[in-house]
């Protein structure tokens, strides 16, 4: 037979020449299996799964002492078993799934920490399931006992899983790859050839080749042991550590967060104090001293819109120009706040969230004295900024007879009115044809009752309509500069020519957001590493055969059954074969070499094949 490049890798875990080995291997079958087990050990730091135990107490001796000792062993045994289950990856995934399910009602059901009004409305409309939801804590999911229990158990599970695996992995990094098994033919990926190069030369070349391919390799006896793919376990550990970082960051953010909204009219200012906010929400551990000391003034709001085409009315420019300062004696600075470009001040971010119009009105009493004059913010109803609100004159007003009363006006503002005969809605969001529609009332606004009341709604329960000359409700459309006069000399209201704009700002303080983002990126990269990097080992043995020719054996083992290990072993064998070329096979079997496939020994009968230890399964691979 001529010289051939015999580096084809066998992947079935067997070799056709093993049947020619002597029956003396029966005595070492147990040792071979142990070598194979050691070769595949610690390819991962995943804990071994344990089955449901029986009794941990064992045999119980008679008497009270025996019962006490047996009970102690039983309690300790069960506690250890429960701890192993809690810190297993299966339970961690179950808890993570339960946490995701628990967050669903927090998104679908009104939460008391976010909107108390919606919760009260839900309870009033659902008299049956409302109290049930309240008992289950579904109106405050994220602070409920059951959600906190899942959260804490998941945290403990991840900690208990990561700590021992980290120490085990550090031990693996400080150690060396395990020595080569005695029978490399039993490994899933295997190849061999004969060469005239010396064994030491082959081992040295193999050591250099494996180190060049970024294997951790060392020479151990007659073989080179190498291992690669440690980043898989690094990614696995990084993924779980990132989950802990995210859990801690989210918990910290929920406990110390704050969020407030403030509507500001052009020319008005805001100071970051609790009393300045229109509404404010915070975490349970938030302290008002945590508010950053800053203030700003809304100088101008600029909004431009698409005038034609399918996107007509869509904002093109949407920004607020502010002058702000930090601290009591801070230097005034200018900033343009846009929708996705907030004002950053230390840990606080000021976002631009909404915009509308504030028509300037002047109210005079029956004697012509000004009792009310200011810009009135109105809330948009649609994308064309058709707005509604209320004008309330609470103090200082007297009718023509000198009687003290309160005035209220139901207001609708249309920045682009289509004209008479069209619907009372705005046709465009910009100020093209502004019209203020007013309906007047007089009486008691109900603000002196001590009950909270929206500034944008008019309580008409104790109010009477002003009537026109025809006996109908007094309602008029006013253009800038026009005045609506109240009947019987009760006064007037004027829509001034200046229409101001307002902007709503949301100030948020979310501590831990940066850590949460870091944890999210770490989890993604860790998961990618654990999925796409494979931990594997390679052994190269070079020994002198009975005929004085060097026999080279190469074998590989991975954590799971994959075609990548044989492919990589084949590539490594091809490079090593170029450095130590093969020679023709000679007839007759050797102690660790194969007989020729076309020749059979004739000097002695072939003994019965020795039972083989099974190919070692990679740790974590499926077995049946």
């Amino acid at each position: 037979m001529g010289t051939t490049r015999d580096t084809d890798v066998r992947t079935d875990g067997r070799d056709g020449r093993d049947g020619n080995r002597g029956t003396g291997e029966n005595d070492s079958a147990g040792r071979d299996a142990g070598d194979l087990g050691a070769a595949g050990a610690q390819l991962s730091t995943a804990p071994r799964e344990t089955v449901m135990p029986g009794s941990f107490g064992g045999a119980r001796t008679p008497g009270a002492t025996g019962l006490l000792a047996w009970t102690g062993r039983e309690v300790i045994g069960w506690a250890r078993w429960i701890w192993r289950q809690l810190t297993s990856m299966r339970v961690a995934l179950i808890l993570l799934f339960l946490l995701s399910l628990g967050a669903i009602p927090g998104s679908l059901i009104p939460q008391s920490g976010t909107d108390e009004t919606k919760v009260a409305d839900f309870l009033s409309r659902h008299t049956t399931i409302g109290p049930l939801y309240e008992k289950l804590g579904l109106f405050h999911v994220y602070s409920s006992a059951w959600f906190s229990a899942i959260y804490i158990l998941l945290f403990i599970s991840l900690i208990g899983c990561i700590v021992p695996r980290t120490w085990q992995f550090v031990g693996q990094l400080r150690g060396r790859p395990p020595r080569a098994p005695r029978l490399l033919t039993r490994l899933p990926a295997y190849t061999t050839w004969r060469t005239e190069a010396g064994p030491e030369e082959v081992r040295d070349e193999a050591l250099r080749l494996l180190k060049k391919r970024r294997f951790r390799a060392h020479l151990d006896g007659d073989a080179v042991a190498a291992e690669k793919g440690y980043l898989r376990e690094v990614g696995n550990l990084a993924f779980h550590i990132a989950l802990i970082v995210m859990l801690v960051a989210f918990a910290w953010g929920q406990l110390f967060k704050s969020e407030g909204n403030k509507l500001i009219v052009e020319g008005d200012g805001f100071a970051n104090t609790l009393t300045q906010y229109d509404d404010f929400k915070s975490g349970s551990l938030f302290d008002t001293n945590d508010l950053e000391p800053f203030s700003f003034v809304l100088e101008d709001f600029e909004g431009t819109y698409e005038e034609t085409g399918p996107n007509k009315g869509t904002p093109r420019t949407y920004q607020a120009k502010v002058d702000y300062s930090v601290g009591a004696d801070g230097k005034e600075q200018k900033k343009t706040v846009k929708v996705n470009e907030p004002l950053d001040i230390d840990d606080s971010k000021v976002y631009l969230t909404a915009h509308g119009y504030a028509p300037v009105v002047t109210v005079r009493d029956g004697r012509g004295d000004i009792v009310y004059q200011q810009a009135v913010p109105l809330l948009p109803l649609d994308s064309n900024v058709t707005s509604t609100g209320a004008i309330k004159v609470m103090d200082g007003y007297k009718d023509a007879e000198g009687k003290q009363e309160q005035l209220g006006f139901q207001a609708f503002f249309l920045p682009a009115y289509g004209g008479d005969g069209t619907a009372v809605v705005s046709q465009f969001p910009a100020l093209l044809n502004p019209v203020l529609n007013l309906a007047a009332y007089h009486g008691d606004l109900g603000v002196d009752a001590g009950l909270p009341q929206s500034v944008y709604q008019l309580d008409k329960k104790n109010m009477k309509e002003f009537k026109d000359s025809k006996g109908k409700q007094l309602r008029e459309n006013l253009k800038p500069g026009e005045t609506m006069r109240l009947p019987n000399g009760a006064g007037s209201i004027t829509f001034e020519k200046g229409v101001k704009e307002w902007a709503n700002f949301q100030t948020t303080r979310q501590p831990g957001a940066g850590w949460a983002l870091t944890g999210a990126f770490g989890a993604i990269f860790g998961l990618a590493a654990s999925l796409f990097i494979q931990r594997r080992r390679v052994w190269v043995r070079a020994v002198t055969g009975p005929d004085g020719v060097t026999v080279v054996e190469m074998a590989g083992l991975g954590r799971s059954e994959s075609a990548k290990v044989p492919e990589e072993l084949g590539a490594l064998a091809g490079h090593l074969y170029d450095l130590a070329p093969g020679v023709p096979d000679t007839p007759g079997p050797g102690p660790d070499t194969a007989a020729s496939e076309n020749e059979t020994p004739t000097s002695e009968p072939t003994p019965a094949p020795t039972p083989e230890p099974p190919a070692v399964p990679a740790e974590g691979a499926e077995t049946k």
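The chain is about 30% helix and 25% strand. Residues 112 and 525 are 37 Å apart (CA to CA).
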